[in-house]
Amino acid sequence: MTAIEVQNLRFAYRAGAPVLAGLDFSIGEGENVFLLGPNGAGKTTLLRCLLGQRGYTGSIRLVGEEVRTLSARELAQRVAYIPQTGESAFDYCVRDMVLMGAGVGRPWLAGPGRAEERAAAEAMERLGIANLAARGFQQLSGGERQLVLVARALAQQAKILLMDEPAASLDFGNRLRVMAEISKLSSEGYTVLQSSHDPDDALRYADRVLVLSGGRAICGAPREIITDELLERLYGVAVRVETLSDGRAVCVPYFPSTP
Amino acid sequence: MDSRNRHNRMILALLAFLLPLGVLLSLTLGRYSLSVGEVARILSGKILAVEKTWPPMAENILWQVRLPRILAAVLVGAALSVSGAAYQSAFHNPMAAPDVLGASSGAGFGAALAILLGKGSFAVMAAAFLGGLACVTLALLAARFSRADRVLSLILSGILAGSLFQAGTSYLKLIADPRNTLPEITYWLMGSLSGVKTEELRLLVLPLLLGFVPIFLLRWRMNLLSLGDVEARSLGVNPARVRIALIACSTLLTAASVALCGVVGWVGLVVPHLARRLVGNDARALLPASFLLGGLFLLLVDDLARSLYTTELPLGILTAVIGAPFFLLLLSRRGGAV
Asked: Which residues of chain A make contact with B233, given a CB cutoff of 8 A?
């Protein structure tokens, strides 16, 4: 079953300078896909299009339904967005943050009820952050915040998760923990599309890789897509993709030039 | 039920107890002395068959002078605080206050114009109300021309519209008669509740209800809105729609308040922040807390205004003198839940 199907997707902020110049790709249910590309390649723009927050041309179908025909509420029931940091003007406690995801299906004026409270509690339990429920979100470490935002997405009951560089500001341990949680979610049936700046993470965790460059996209298995040539072309640095003795691949930079 | 909810309920219950108590005590304040017992008897005399042991003068003062004024103080304080809290969420900006889109500046211009033309107090009220709405409308229209971020362009065009109307007010003051209309305009612009009449208060019931009720209904969406537009939208909220609803209702509240008692600054900024410290940022607790605390705050300020000196002090001066150091205190103790 296809979770996300994109055909001839185009978007430009200014006429004549397209950011996305005709993308075609599809992502299956339960896949963990990494979105790679240099700064300014349009990763965030693509995520915004998938969230129905940009007026695109072409077609984006989420489990068969065209994004532009769905209301904000219908979209929120299908796709959850996990921002990089989750900055808010005011601090909310973790429970309220997660609850904000659980309430999406409620009628316009209604707040969350008991069922939503339960869904939020389950989501926190599932990610092992139930003990943080009463803490202020902004008092948490980067890794904990990321888990809270993931819990909020789970409480939202949407099966497609879009993540904006979930590991970007995390320390080494938190990064591994968050990546492991995300992989677990995709193995449980959630479809994940996460933007990333780290080809190593993509090699380690991705089912498939989607590379954005020059307004176009290529999509495929990590080991086939992430090559020395691609990395050189994307980021302008010399990198060699080496295979370790246990078969795993890692990127080794040779830039400026290793003595 | 967790400890935080219990804590918030206790705070709200405490405020809900203090506000009527404050009203009762304020009714005894003034040059004509009335005891708490007398006030209670006169009040209950309206519904119950209490023997009239008080002079008719006392009854008149209570019903015609003190009660309208005190209710006005509570309602205006509540209205400015609730609209301040709503504006802060709508603009996801802790520094937003009820006059961020120029509601007060517009109302000031309208009132000054009506005073200059020698109109009566009802006309001044109506002109202030319409002036406030006009200024916010102008700000919203101006924001449509801006290419900057939506929230930023709203704030900037609020400054733009506000300063246009302030310039208008300055001009009106320049051409006003310095012997009578100029002092009247100046006094009005500093805010006062003296001489509030029951009929004036009655006129404001509808705009106040139209402001309060939708804001309270939107309290959960307000939380989502303060996460910023991208997240709010991804959580199923149409941020532009909720924001415009909050702006419209807050503008009604502010314009109605300013129409009744002139420009009273600081309340809409300081009180929501105090309420945030007490009950946190969840609008489900924040809005009732702002309402009660705002009512209590302006009630106390007005008590001071009418009892500190033999002549009344303008409210705007007192709210600034009390509000500014208080705000500094809040800033210096930042941290924790705020």
From this structure: 51-53, 72
